[in-house]
Protein 1
Amino acid sequence: METILAQILTGLSIASILLLVALGLAIIYGTTGVINLAHGEFVMIGAYTAWALQTYVGAGLIESLVVIFFVVALFGWIIEKTVIRHLYRRPLDTILATWGIGVMAQQAIRLAVGGELRYVQMPSAMSSSVSILGIEISAFRLFILALSAAIFGFTWYLMYRTSFGMKLRAITQDREVASCFGIKSKRIYSLTFAYGAGLAGLAGALVSPLKSVSPEMGTTYVVDAFMVVVLGGVESLIGTVASSVILGELTGFLAFYSNDTLAKVLVFLAIVVLIRFRPQGLFAAKIRS
Amino acid sequence: MKLGRRKFIKGTVAAGAVTAAGFPHIWIKDSSLAYAAGGEIKVGVLFSLTGTTAIVEESLNKATVLAIEEINAAGGINGMQIKAIVEDPASDPATFAEKARKLVLGDRCVSVFGSYTSASRKAVLPVFEKRKNLYFYPTLYEGRECSKNVIYTGAVPNQQQDEFVPWLIEKFGKRWSLIGSNYIYPKEENNYCKKLLTQYGAEVIREEYVPLGHSEFSSVINKFRSEKPDVIFSTVVGDSVVALHRQYRAGGLDPEKMPMASLTTSENEVAAMGGDAAAGHFTSAPYFMVYDSPENHKFVEAYRSRWGGDKVTHFVSEPSYFQVHLFKQAVEKLSAGDISPKTIREAIKGEEMIAPQGKVRIEPENLHSYLWPKIGQCQSDGQFKMLKTTSEWLAPEPYKAYPNQTCTESGLKES
């Protein structure tokens, strides 16, 4: 019983990291329709910003989070203003362009700070484990879990309870008609892109104490993020959470009862089978097309 | 300029006549003076400077270049300078093969120093075997190879494990958990480890492999927590090492009760994960940066003054360094006209030198090296504390896990 509980908690912890990484992608993809292959590099830049703040400024991870969010959001905003906005009607070109941006970001980081693996110090208050209902779990993982729930709550509020969110949803449904009603779709798009990038940056900063920081680290995250978005269905926040939890628990349990190699294969297989029969994902939002 | 056919033929014949008169030996087949032409000896340096394994291979390139510079500064080999031709194979086995071909055929290098991963070594092997050239490979690896065209200066499984495994059993216990990355090296190491464990009456409670580059170890940590092995034997490589150690630490596991014993965690990996995450775990290797010997002090000092005071030396960069000096000793014994990959191979058999790790020797039969295995425990400052050094050097036995096979001078023998 205890091992099962521990494993459920582990699954949630994996899910929270998946959610953090995928949320930004889901928002960008869901509203603008841009398949952002540079998303992994936003995660990577977030991790490097955390590392730089720690190494050169001496700031701890928790204090840096807000700064990191704005740094990466600014980066995303610039990318949107200079490249993406010219390509909104050419989805295939955005794939190529964002992929190129990703490669450039990797090499830029490599040239600027070198290719060595880096790490970010864990906040000392959370560097050990805590016991919940007799189960030992890393305090830092719990923190990530709580924070990703909070970030999701905030994002949901932003989308469904603010006028920004209402405009955003209006554009998603029909850009032309929304523009006729006086909504500045260009501005909303840039802000959305920046917000999604900022979330990815936060994800990178939060995983950096648990995993290694390297210029190539984004590649694995972008795959995970797409997996979550494809399974959950685009344009659906609830779908993103649900699919993160499903994938997290599935990976956790399969890895526990077999091994990580097999878990990875089976999870991919399950997704392939699922999108064969339900290409729109589990929770597709109903929109007029 | 327009070159007519007749003029071209005339020119070629004239040039041929001059060459034939001036250098008669080029007409002799397999003439080897070309290898030491113009008072310099050309060697290739083939370590990735870009791509995924560049992080480690860059340090191997630096150690090799340092050794070449040292030899040249001290007057070269019998008055001839070594000319290093550096290529970047970009962490890609296919590019390794292509660059190896270029170094061997295009540049006519007499030997090449290179490779970190087994995959890249396997990729260049056909080039060196077909062209009868010589490859110097500095990395510890899984053994089970018997090429006449490779000099292996890293450890094979018996050299890292023969002392390590019984020492760990005695100190911590007999319930072992084996974890590795999912490819040939960890599987062969674990294969040998399991043989030793059976021999000492210990048991394997889990053997598990994670995908290369894997970074989510929470389920693995849960297994450790519920099964409580006495020793976690780790052959996880690359950035996974960092993730595993950091998550082990975050999960609150205790290295004093359940230490990780690794064959792959060097000063390099420790620098990438931070001393606090690595502290308390054990590594077995022939070389540690803190090893106290005049040769090692000299090596570390030279390395740091050449490449930067914050750089670390480790158990792959040290062989990268000493194998160049061994190459020099072998070539020194040959006259300039005699230098060829084949004569160097014959000359290096049984060659000895005092390396930073101690006195090493090339085993004449299998071309691997006699080395000095050591056991170190990582400290929070990122260096190792040396706990044990073998009383004598250990012979390389690349086929020890396969008793019916032996690597001999004439090739692999099966009984």
Note: Chain B has two domains: 33-155+292-371, 159-285.
Protein 2
Amino acid sequence: MKNASNLFVVAEVVDGHPVGLCHEMLGLARALADRSGGTVHAGVLGSGLGGAGEDLIAHGADTVRVIDAPIFAQYQADAWLPDLHAMIGQVRPDAVMIGHTPLGADLAPRLAFRLGTNVATGCNHVRVEGGKLLLTRPCYGGKAEEVVSMLSSPALFTVKPKCFQPCPKQDNRGGELVRMDSILDPASVRTKVREVRRDASDGARLESARIVVAGGGGMKGVRGFELAGRLADALGGAVGASRVACDLGWCPPSRQVGLSGKTVAPELYIAIGISGAAQHVAGCANAKTIVAINTDPDAPIFRYSKYGIVGDCHQLMPALIDKIEALRK
Amino acid sequence: MKIVVCVKAIPDPEIAASIFRVDEAAKRMVPLPGTRSVMSPFDEQALELALRIRDALGEGSITLLTLGAETTRSIVKHGLSLGADDALMLVDPVFDDGDSYTTARALAAAIQRMGGVDLILTGRQAADGDCGVVGCGIAELLGLPAVTFAMDIVVTDGMLVIERALGEGSEIIEAPMPAVVTVSHEVGKVRYASLRETMKAARKPVTAWSAEQLGLDASELGTRGARRVLERLYVPVNDVQCEYMVGETPEELAGNLVERLHAARLI
């Protein structure tokens, strides 16, 4: 990463649109490249990509390599790897970044080993110091953070959502769109996606919600989550949950916030009956304001919270719903 | 069917953040006095899936594979008492202070040398480093397919049918064997060690191999082979001051909170 730092962003596209995390990665890539006069490359594989390439340019990419082919309709590492490997071979970037999503977490280690290098996963802070790319990531279940660098090139890393500012969209931004043919031999794809089961609950809304009402073990069951749902409705927000609550089946897994679930960064995060284990806080620490409601005054969640109530959430939730509804009138 | 489960010994991940310490100079976690290493919970779930597969098929062998010093012995014992058939430990000072790359390299070499392995299971990530790299790395080094974040595996007609956890549900993936599968916590509860298995565990074979026995050169392993440099390890500081609401009744407490949030234009 000495002079010109060339970065390669692997973009993830859903229904013809790059996911929000792509824009955050481009924001980071742009900031790193602009410091050193480097170039931001992006690569995208998919089927029915529409204007995804143009969108990536408008959000900060200089060059976008696009392969639009039916075989890429559903993500599989076996299918993605050969073409991405070839793209990276052409671009020869100093660093490759991939979103820390179920796709990126599956793809990045495979790609790293195929390139003979290593990967830092789930990075929440990235900077260049003395010509060295320093990657910060949570570890020990969010209790600690480590800063790592890579001796091998390119350095791969996956980027945690909601940690970097996206570049504002500029529709007239210049960039080069390269449409390519796939080099993939379909016979080399050993896995097959037989079925996709979408969770009925609208978990995606959780990630974009301005207000999140999250419940944990203190909800004591499905009834607690019904109240949380009513509270979220009153606030125009979405319901989240700790892993404990999801593992107990009180809430669908798509609602899980934390290290092994979703990362959210709402304006307001109301943690109810959640003790605040580091693994959970890792998923909501970037919320602007955290409010905690817990019977245990020593619960760690209060250490991250601006406002707190020590008390029984089953009494407090109906009271909160009443007060908020009164406020709306 | 021959299954290998890769397991890692880690400091107890359940210890509270308030007593978690690191030695910043040594760039290591400070182990709490009186605590011992445990099997990384995701690896325990990987072993649970292996046991369920063996139960369903009514045949098969399960080998535990670990890399590490003597501290791993207690987790090997634990895995054997849960029902694994035998264990292979990779023990050699040259493995020390490696990274995910050198770890995957050593484990892949061991699996290759064992021969005839149909399924390699690992946890989705180790609960200390939280990297989630080694499983996929083994697959790449051995040229095998990999499926990550499995919540269930069924073996039918020599194929693996894997339910993979996604953010918004799951997908069913078919993979041929041999393959690497990493296992997620959606597997659910793991079994307890039975008295019968614990009694048997003491007599189960545990083998140790060195780097030389794996045919690996010391320059490819440990610190010398690592691609990743640990620059810093620290506990992040958090300086939020919590304002506790005051009130006699739930209504009063709720009213005060709503007032604060409204004044701060949060609601």
Note: Chain B touches chain A through 82 residues (CB under 8 Å).
